Hints:
alpha/beta, 2 domains, 13 helices, elongated
Amino acid sequence: MAHSKKYILFGARVSEAQRKALLALPDMQELPADFGPFGSGAVHCELFPYALSERQGLSDEALAMRRAEVLADLRGAHVVVVESTGEQPNMDASLERVRSAVDTLHDNGVGTVGVVMANCAYERQDRDFKKTGQVVSVNSKRFAKELKALGADYVVVCTPHSDDVIKLWREQFGKNYYSLQMHKVFADDIRQRFAGSLQVMVGAPDGADKPNDQGQKRARQLCAALHEVESEFADAFMFKIAKHHTAESESELTFFEGNVKARDCVVVDDMIDGGSTMINAARELKKQGARSVTVYATHGICTPKDGVPALERLLAEGNGIDRIVLCDSIPEIHAKREALTPDLQERVSVLSVGPLLAEAVTQQCERARVNSYAAAMNGGAVRQK
Length: 385
């Protein structure tokens, strides 16, 4: 008979809205886990934590029985590990929590192990850069290999950075790598913010000079969803920008196209880090006569520069940005918003990716259920394919 248990195992970097959305799924339970580091700082994973005070005085037989009960509960279950692993000062610990959780679950008989990372580590380390004469790590490839080797059956992420990173993950997981896009969520939010949303112009902050650029695809996808047109007709509602990098997180514009005069404009990207790309785009849009500029991005990395918080820098007078809308894929964005002055807080909104993650997990649970049923009928195990 198919095992019906479904668990969510939360790491430390998960927003409250994501937790609520995932735990609201039918028959979903939270799997208790302890990732408390040793005194040395080394991370470990214990499922169904058993405190020393509870263990003391119990016989070996009682301890063995308790362990057997835990293993029986896990055997054949579907467990989803949820943790943002991407770019923040504490990302090393989050990476180790995911690795140790997946390994522990797989080694103890869990039927299906899913990994949900709203923001995934190493997204910008997606190629070898040999054309620029560099010798660098390609950590996206290494991370994908690690999770596959440890026993992860599928991976769900939000808004991958590039086609290169998607390719690296699909080399390991094939169709079991799922990239969730935010275009429908953003389109709904734009309609609520702008009464005349049919007049809104949409574009990416760069990439217009690159064939098949992921950012341009992302902008076209949002534009098509917002204006309810096929993607091939979206160009009529788009502006286009190209840039080149002058430093690691600095850039300048080299090309602009589009009639934005007296129009509300939306600049969409996968992430915001230092902010220079968005600032350059917003300044150019205002120079071209845009009525307003609202920035949308899934991942708010928002690294400070020279002691100035990134959000404060983005919203500074003269930078052209009227409002910023981010997602909670990096949960630290809430604290960064709260650190702003009240007037700047009003200009920053945070949307949750929780409903999208919940929808993806629901689909994976149903798929695992069908596979488990097929395995029971055939007398053998069926892993995610």
